[in-house]
Amino acid sequence: MSYVVMTEETLHPAACSSCAKKVMLPISVFTFALLSLFLPFSLRAEESLRCGIDRLEASCFRELSGMRVALVTNAAGVNRNGEADYLLMLRSGVNLKFLMAPEHGFAADVEAGRTIANTVVANALPVYSLYGATKKPDPSQLKEVDILVFDLQDVGSRCYTYISTMKSAMEACEEAGIAFMVLDRPNPVIPLPQEGFMVEKGYDSFVGAVNIPFVHAMTVGEIALLLKEQRFKKLDLRVITMQGYSRERFGDEYAGFRFVTPSPNIRNVNTALLYPATVFLEATTISEGRGTDAPFMQFGAPFINSSELALALNAYRLAGVSVQPVTFTPRSNKYQGELCHGLKLSLTDRKGFRPFRTAAALLLELERLYPGRVVKDGRFFDLLAGTPRFREMITRQMPLDKIMEESFRQIEQFNRSTPAPSYLYR
């Protein structure tokens, strides 16, 4: 794999005065990668994090010069100073034709699953919905631009739909014959190892559009490279990588970087860590905490015996997490206005935590204690899991270690077949 490397030593004559020490040295049309990728970790660890948008801004958006541009983004698409990506582009003279917004809308404040309407920002800049009548950019819209730029904050779980939006956008760009650029951002939970089942044939959906592990340990830029290799070989893909990024750090461990909530219920990095442990409850009769002050960090239902469930889960000695009985009354969603009894999850060791293992243990005990009363939508559960196998093993009360062994075998096969260049960071 060849790269275009951003250096700090070479001045390009076309660079603006405020960017005099930044330049892009072309080596390939496919990918932009870090010079710092090849530096020792001890040197890179002291660097402040710069996301794709920061590096693009540092070059005065020279990579978009002379192009008609569209941008997929939302309220979390900001630079290290908290300034919106689209406003930076407009201020720098980028010929920005329109924006596109994913699930949760441009303001990232709409509840999951609700359709999003088109809107307008900055007085006259259109924002087209990618979670309304269609989830894929319209060919007629793409005729107006030369490149579609993607700048969305992912949370590290396959069912979170922003990587599905990216896949649909890549497909549309390949069909339209235009370039696709990813401005890479941190996977906030990337130190967690890969966990969960792969997507089985017939179970791909918008909550499982990319065949990667459920907890995938990849950035959106790395996933884009994988998709190009697997599906979109003719696509002109350009990835602006991060500088000062490490697979050893969580998203809130970087100086100068602030994790901005990408949707209403993922409010911080700890929620993103717990999300893959509790998100399967969306397909059950158990509240996953939506409509409370701790979504995905607590769960419950009117019929649960909290103390009994806590005792059962504690017997698993789950790493990195503790559980405490809790009561709450959701203001919206499941059991709105009803008193729910359940458990609150608290992280005790983030790097030791295994969210999918926790999810499996939780579901095993809920099914054992309340047989036939938990999973209400088997098809949706299977789409979240990427396979019916997980639900079947829960229903049959298979040992936790057996569930984990079967999923790990699938992950090992994935990693044996994944091209090494897809991984951009150490």
Automatic annotation (TrEMBL):
Positions of the Peptidoglycan beta-N-acetylmuramidase NamZ C-terminal domain: 273-417
Molecular functions (GO terms): peptidoglycan beta-N-acetylmuramidase activity
Pfam families, alphabetized: NamZ_C, NamZ_N
Domain Peptidoglycan beta-N-acetylmuramidase NamZ N-terminal: start-end pairs: 69-269
InterPro entries: NamZ, NamZ_C, NamZ_N
Name this protein carries in UniProt: Uncharacterized conserved protein UCP016719
Organism (species): Chlorobium ferrooxidans DSM 13031
